[in-house]
Structure formats: C-alpha cells, structure tokens
Amino acid sequence: MKETLKAGIRYEHTFIVPKSKTVPALYPEAEEFLVMPEVFATGFLVGLFEWACIKAIKPHLDWPKEQSVGTFIEASHLAATPPGLKVTVSVELVAVDRKKLTFSVEAHDGIDLISQGRHERFVIDKEKFDSRLEDKKANA
Question: Looking at the whole model, is its pTM more than 0.85?
C-alpha cells in the first residue's frame, strides 16, 4: 500500500444500466427472478459499488500485486431504475485501519437517490490470497 492511501479519497463512476443488469438477469436459473420487474438489481448495484471503490484505491495500491476484496456491505436500495438510465456512484474512503478500508457509498440515477450506505474492503496480497484458495480447493 502506498502512503497516499488515506481517508478522503473520492471517486465518481457512471454506468448506463443495460437489460443484462436487471433482476431477471441476476440469477437466470431462478424462475422467481425471471418474472420480476426489469429494474437494476440490488446484487448488481452492490457490484457497482465494489467497482467504484476498487477504481478509487487502485492508484494507491501496488496493483496488481495488491488488490482488495469486499468484506461488508450495508446499503439501502431506495428507488427502482429501469434499463437505459445512467447511474452515478459516488464513493469516499472514510477510514483506513491497517488493511481494512471503509467507504461511504451513494448512487443516483439522474432522477432519484437510489442507494446509500457503507462498504468495507480488505487489502490483499494477490499471490498469497490465490495460494490460500488453492489450498481450500484441495481440501474441499
């Protein structure tokens, strides 16, 4: 981790919601999801928060040797967003506790505030992380 990885880092990311990021596409194996409204899925919203947080801190890590993984998410989903609307995600790194990073997250679709919350990530050494995964697979 570079010395520049400090609270106060902000990042804004925009994404136009395609049909492939709606509730029916979240788990196509789930017949219940297939009949639900075609609106931006909460699961994909969480992924968008993660993406924005990664983009925010990437310049402050020894990328790709150092990366981060999500460890906690607490976020509302306040309004439905149909495909075609642009979602703007704003994230701010609010705390750094060794390798634990805490972000404030918010999303807006140009009409409504659609989400706000908190997300935590942990900085990893990619090689060590992958090695532990291989051990886990071998012992499964």
Answer: yes
Q: Could you tell me how many residues make up the chain?
A: 140
The residue annotated as part of the active site, out of 42, 88, 92, 102, is 42
4-22 pLDDT per residue, tens: 999 999 999 999 999 999 9
For residue 39, the 8-state DSSP code is: S
77 labelled catalytic: yes
Q: Which domains are delineated in the chain?
A: 10-138 (3.10.129.10)
Question: Is 70 annotated as a binding-site member?
Answer: yes
Q: Is 43 a known ligand-binding residue?
A: no
